[in-house]
Amino acid sequence: MAEHAEHEVKVLVVDDQDPFRRAMAAVVEATDGFVVLGAVASGEESIEAVRVMQPDLVLMDVNLPGISGVDATRVISALESGPVVVLLSTYDEDEFDQAGCGATAYVAKALFSPDRLEQVWQSAVAAH
Fold first, then answer.
1. Total number of domains in the chain
2. Is pTM, for the whole model, over 0.85?
3. Which residues contact 10 (CB under 8 A, 6 or more apart)?
4. Residues in Cβ contact with 54 at an 8 Å cutoff, skipping those fewer than 6 apart
5. Which residues, in sequence order, are CB contacts of 63 under 8 Å at separation 6+?
6. 57 DSSP β-pair partners
7. End-to-end CA distance of the chain
8. Residue 125 falls within a domain, yes or no?
């Protein structure tokens, strides 16, 4: 347990809808070893927030005003030592193809939970 306390996974939440931002942040806070660094509402804000806050993980909504979550993910993934990006949306997981944008995983918002968060993080860490 001590190793979680030494390095919590720092998370940036990106969603244009406040209820979803709050819900995703609540899931992160309810997951041992994860902490919310901040929350923003657009793709443009997410790119700047990643540069400033340097999160370990970005939970990115697909549908955002301005540049989409997929396009913001492409930019973030190209950054040197950029964070892991997980895309979220209301699409079913088998209806969405995140290939090519740099996202590590896609999770349907309805399935997002502490267990799912830990699962995608462990998969991302194992892949690196």
1. 1
2. yes
3. 35, 37, 53, 54, 55, 56, 57
4. 10, 83
5. 16, 69, 89
6. 11, 84
7. 22
8. no
Residue 87 resides in a domain: yes
Which helix (H) or strand (E) is 34 found in, with range?
strand 34-40
User: CB neighbours (10 Å) of residue 3?
Assistant: 7
Question: Distance between CA 110 and CA 92 in Å, rounded?
Answer: 9
CATH of the domain at 41: 3.40.50.2300
- Give me the sign of the Cα torsion angle 29, 84, 60, 119: negative
Backbone phi, psi, residue 19, to 5°: -60, -40
Pull the structure tokens for residue 78.
């190209």
> Between the CA of residue 62 and those of 15, 47, 77, 109, 115, what are the distances in Å?
8, 14, 15, 11, 21
The first and second tokens of residue 76, run together, are: 């973030």
Residue 121 maps to a domain: no
Domain region containing 67: 2-114
pLDDT in tens, 15-42: 999 999 999 999 999 999 999 999 999 9
